[in-house]
Amino acid sequence: MSGESVPLALPLVRLAKDTCEVTILYHELRKPLLRYLVCLGLTADEAQDVVQDAFVSLHRYLAAGGSEENIRSWLFRVAHNAARNCQKTYRRRFSAPLDAEVEASAIDEATPERAVLEKERFRRLHGAVRLLTHAERECLLLRARGLRYREIGEVLGLATSTVGDTVERAIKKLAEKCNV
Amino acid sequence: MCDFSKKLTAWMDGELPDGESADLERHVSACDECSNLLVSYKGASEAFDVYCEATFAAETRRRSSRWLPAAVAAGMAAAAVIVAFSILPHQRVAQLPRYASSPAEAPHVAAQPAQTTAMASKPADATHPNASANNRAPREYVAAAVPHGRIIARGTGSRALVQSSQARNLGPFLPEPHVEIAIPADAMFPPGAAPPGMSFAADLTISADGSAERLGLRPRLAEFETKFEGRSNQP
Description:
The complex is a heterodimer of chains A (180) and B (235).
Chain A: H1 2-40, H2 44-63, H3 71-85, H4 87-93, H5 100-106, H6 112-131, H7 134-144, H8 149-156, H9 160-178
Chain B: H1 8-12, H2 18-30, H3 32-95, H4 113-121, H5 136-145, E1 150-154, E2 162-165, E3 178-182, H6 185-188, E4 199-206, E5 212-220, H7 222-232
Helix pairs in contact in B: 2-3
């Protein structure tokens, strides 16, 4: 009897395991994914939709027997490609002017003198970020979300050494422009 | 420029192999240029993280402000609906006269089947001219104020009965006043067509212009009708 039940039970166990795993990953990676997508230029609503779709895809991927290795980079890659497919976002991404709201949110509780300094620093940083290439900005954004160079390479389709060079170049640009 | 400076970011991010990492660490502690660059790179990296958080916070705030007017409008609409349901029905109920609370107290009037039809087309006529004097005002009010009132015609006995009721169960919503009319069964069916003791109730809906919108017949229990008639005939 037990021999007969194994073939039936295995898919159920796997499904429960996959569902549980997806739930854990959702709680762990939802916010980093949202931040990455918003910083890429998506609105909060667009980012929510992309993240939902990415996790639905992950559930299907695991249910279909997909590899459980490098799930984090897999999710970021799916979300990244979905954001790329959004043409409106792509146009908006590098044409956004210095946003007063971004400045205000970064300089909330500062004293007047410090607020002026922070504002100036922020203005320079914004200018420096706009000088970054697509790849440099995406590498830095993924790095800021805690991804390793190998994972960044998997998301963007680059070699790990290329990611290292790109990050080094981007950080150098920011440091020079911001004079920090 | 120092040759080690190109590996500073990778070392900062912990991406260098252990051997290289140890070499670089020793070098940075001895090289002022690399030490200064490292501080500068760390500052730029932290500034970029702050910039990302600020961008995310700004977009979240923008999203909230985008939904705020819609949320306020929805709240106001909900409040208006609540006010309408809690105040307006009470006002309308308060205007209603006190109807008979039991069939025995119900106003009644003798009417013929032909008059029932006339009443359906002109509700105000239902109370006139055959209405009992003591019940005239309530029935006139029903006919005048609630043109959508429902008329129930009961086919029992030889005497038609017009009844205005709805004093019971006056909840927060406007009740549906109706007039009940008894119609002789002989006037509706040929003799012998309806089984003995069987009666019918006709639901008739009257539109705002006084015309009949809907008419439906429902069979009634003879026992109930007998009881009802007996009570309604009491003085």
